[in-house]
Amino acid sequence: AKGIGALFMASMARRYPMFNFATVSPGMTAGTDATNKAPFPVSYVHKCIFFISSCTGSAHNVNTGAKRYVDQIMGKWNYPSGAFVASKKKASGEVADVSKMEAHSMYSDARLQDAAYEAIRRYIK
After folding, report:
1. Where would I find the H helices in 57-109?
2. Core-most of 20, 22, 73, 102, by most CB within 10 Å?
3. Cα–Cα distances in Å, from 4 out to 18, 54, 57, 84, 107?
4. By the 8 A CB rule, do 10 and 115 touch?
5. In angstroms, rounded to a whole number, what is the distance separating the alpha carbons of residues 125 and 114?
6. 3-state DSSP call for residue 71?
7. 81: which residues sit within 8 A by CB, 6+ positions away?
8. What span, in angstroms and rounded, lies between the C-alpha atoms of 96 and 18?
């Protein structure tokens, strides 16, 4: 769903250049309530994964994830409208406009962006 949302937002950025659109990923955040609401075996496995990921630096806390949204809204970063801001490497750490990276270049594809826009538009009608 996040990928479709990023494509949709990039399409909106092209359609409405007077506004600034961005998709911001909080990264892998340990300590969210999502694991508590899952059934026992799943919640236990997720908690173990998040604990190990936090210890190895592959995840960060909820405050760090939330700060990404605040930084984008407050203009701390200078990413262009339509950017997909996420962790540069893995699921935590420094952020970048990942749509400019070769591994994520599909987010810069105008045809895919427009397809996501049309799919969402049809769904919400």
Report:
1. 62-73
2. 22
3. 22, 28, 27, 11, 9
4. no
5. 16
6. helix
7. 13, 17, 19, 20, 21, 22
8. 23
Q: Cβ distance 10 to 108 under 8 Å?
A: yes
Listed in sequence order, the residues at least 6 apart from 24 whose beta carbon sits closer than 8 Å to its beta carbon are 68, 69, 72, 85, 86
Cβ-based neighbour number of residue 89 at 10 Å: 10
Q: pLDDT tens digit string along 91-122?
A: 899 999 999 999 999 999 999 999 999 999 99
Q: What is the DSSP string of 21-48?
A: -EEE---SEET-THHHHS-HHHHHHHHH
Ramachandran assignment for 80, one of left (phi > 0), alpha (psi -120 to 50 degrees), beta (any other): beta
User: What pLDDT, in 10s, does the model give residues 39-83?
Assistant: 889 888 988 888 898 888 888 988 999 999 999 999 999 999 999
Token pair of 59 as six digits: 């995840």
C-alpha dist (Å) from residue 51 to 46, 54, 103: 8, 5, 28
